[in-house]
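Review form for a predicted model. The reviewer records the input and the model, then writes brief findings.
Reviewer: anonymous (R2)
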Amino acid sequence: MTPRRLAAIVAGDICGYSHLMQLDEEGTHARVKRIQRDLIEPSIAEHHGRLVKTTGDGFFAIFDSPVEAVRCGVVIQQNLTGRNASLPRDHRIEFRIGVNLGDVIIEADDIYGDGVNIASRLESIAEPGQVFISGGIYEQIKHKLVCGYESLGDRKVKNITDPIRVYRVLPDPAAFNRARKRRESILIFLLSLLLLAIAGGALWYLLPQPLGRVRNQALTRLSPDVSQALPGRQSAPPAPARHDAARQDRLPVLATPVLQQPPSQQAAAPVAPPQPAPAVQEPEMNTLRGGTFMMGSNEDSSEKPVHHVTIKPFAISRYPISVREWNECAAAKACAFLATGKGDAPVTNVSWSDSKQFAGWLAGVTHKPYRLPTEAEWEFAARGGTQTRYWWGDDLRPDMANCKGCTDVAALEQAPRIGSFKPNPFGLYDMGGTVDQWVEDCWHKNYGGAPTDGSAWTESDCGSHVIRSGSWKNDPRYVRPANRDSYDTSVRYPTHGFRIALSP
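Model under review:
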């Protein structure tokens, strides 16, 4: 019997592939192959999926978890956004991605069934750079990802009998609220126009007509008994003063210009006392006196050459920034999303740009020069005054760091609380494992030409930044103080967090 299984199917396809091939056949082919090798295949593997096949300009993959399937699609799209940022629009390689949950027939090198066809149809109606998901996927993931979702309603697609409920994934969790507020603003604007039109019609009815005529028209609408009982009904026309009163009663009050008095004649308006800024609980900081150390190692080409670096005194947060600390920034509308999870867990799914927003917000509300640490400062702090492979020695020891294979604790979807493992000699926790940590520096493939004074190595428009520490999902080699990696500047990833530094 042919094996079947319920799976989350991801279908991806390049937009305008034929046009790209016409512009530069060999170059486009090479770029597509590189994206498949360096981005799509590793992302699928990282999210526990299986690449079923590639189609020249697309791919199909299956996942046991709908959460991981959508997360993989978002990561691919965000990475491609970073890669395309510096390219002319007609040279950009952009994917459409569709994700569906369905029962599929599995063969060695292909998958079949309506579930696959629906994923393919979702991909075909998706916009460039977007991830579209089916209603079945949405119901499985709607409370499990830091995302927004925009319902596109039921769509009838080719060769599928029943309409498909379609959702657009909004990787920025604030994006859905912004879209909703934009729609609400449009509705409020239209309602305001309607009210103005009604008010204008009322003014048109009242203003051009003689006041007595308006009054008589109003009185004729009353019952005969009531109109007869009104004073002056059978007598001579009312005095002009009564006309004025009637006018005042029935006409809208128009604003009268007020002549500005000289400052000396104006009454002094009471001035409200300035309100103090809301208190912010600052992260716990450890002050380091600085010094000279040997930065890098010979274990990886990106960590060479080993070189002397002199660090000036600075302070660095004792722990990675927590969910509670991040959400203070989010509550102040200064950070892009509200983080989920326990308050004492490290915040994750944070891009380099997000971490810079937090540091800028904290500096603004405290009037202190908070910032991201430089790469040299981070390694100096992580070593804790040692020059061994790990801060505790050259051999891996159990329960010294939170990484895959470092402890007997089963891998979790979220990192455990900050400070769960021993601090290094500088009293800093989680300087290796727990979460990947952003630093200020742009990514360079090695230390050739790196500054030796501990300053950040940056350029004005670098597309990727250095990330340190490794996470609870990485193996032990990532928790070495010398280990370094990179990630696209504006891309969020579920293991990425950060800590902050403070200049004297």
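Findings: Confidence is low (pLDDT under 50) at residues 217-269.
Further findings: The chain has two domains: 4-177, 285-502.
Recommendation: see findings above.
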